[in-house]
Amino acid sequence: MVSKIEQDHQRFRQIVRGRIRKDLRRFLSRGELIGREGRRYVLIPLHDIDLPTFRYGDNSGGVGMGEGEGEGGSGNDSGGEQEGRHITEVDVTLEELADILGEELELPRIKPRGRHRITTVKDKYSGIRPIGPASLRHFKRSYREALKRQIASGEYDPDNPVVVPIRDDLRYRSWNEVRKPQSNAAIVYMMDVSGSMGDEQKELVRLEAFWIDTWLRRNYEGVECRYVVHDVRAAEVDRETFFSIREDGGTRISSALALCKDILAEHYDANDWNVYLFHFSDGDNSSEADNRVCVKLLEETLLPACNLFGYCQVASAYGSGNFLSVLREAFPDGAPDADGPRLLTSKVNGRDDIYESLRAFFRAGR
Questions:
Q1: Kind of pairing between the strands at 234-237 and 274-281
Q2: How far apart are alpha carbons 345 and 340 in whole angstroms?
Q3: All structural domains of the chain
Q4: DSSP secondary structure string, 201-239?
Q5: Mean pLDDT of the region 19-47
Q6: Angstrom distances, CA of residue 182 to CA of 110, 118, 144, 221, 222
Q7: 355: which residues sit within 8 A by CB, 6+ positions away?
Q8: pLDDT reading at 338 higher than 90
Q9: Which one of 164, 193, 264, 313 has the fewest beta carbons within 10 angstroms of its own beta carbon?
Q10: How far apart are CA 299 and CA 326, in angstroms?
């Protein structure tokens, strides 16, 4: 019975997985999905999927199945005759959601570059030994040794089964140090919050950042996120401030890149971390001189230190959109190295473009 229930549950999960894949583009653009995020899972609303339930006996009729009458017996106040669209909320782990994202977008698993791995040392209990601290005493094994000794010596009385371990019977858990390689990643999100970046643009950034975060956490065991906002000056903020700060002022993109350079130098050695940098803007920079400063910072410092620099330009009625052209002209091949391009760009005019933007950033598997 348990096996049958498990099979039914697995079939149901496959149905859910297939429905999510089919509607993935729609889920990518749904802001409420982020609001449903828990510690390790999200609640996804799916239409027209019935949860498996038990039904007993003949369900062809019963109380309330006959023809009814409206108020006063006229029967004219009837409900609608069209079928409703049933919505079922299904728990999906973030790992499972990331796998579906990777399958649908045909994303390769990310390969950590260079020596960007940290080795952690953990104690693993692997055996039993006759000596050790009292805190590691193994009661069952000690009792078993005492029982074996009393049976062998003829001291054991089945009618009075008292087993008292002596010192030689005591057994203790033993352990070995296990060195486990652990891939770590650092993500620095940078966003233009000048006057031309409104709530609509920030919502697009919020959606894309959620999916970037979900995919990278599926590929790395440890992920740290940092958040930088800028107009003509840059500042590091927390996640909540990053997505809620009000826009104002002009734009100097180099201020964010310079601050990002300082954060990496102080906290994220390129030999220990896989670094991912993402900058979101409407492309309206202050001057050609600052564009040149940005290109120099990327070429000399940021690109050599990171796995990927992703620039996402979001459409704005007030932005010039010129910075995207600056990057594509300066790095026509994405500043490639032996492992492929490190600078990748995308343009997001609306929510429907997030799907292709994610594919553009991660199809290289960096």
A1: unpaired
A2: 14
A3: 1-53+86-104 (no CATH), 118-178 (no CATH), 184-362 (3.40.50.410)
A4: HHHHHHHHHHHHHHHHHHH-SEEEEEEEEESSSEEEE-H
A5: 66
A6: 14, 5, 39, 6, 7
A7: 24, 25, 28, 105
A8: no
A9: 164
A10: 13
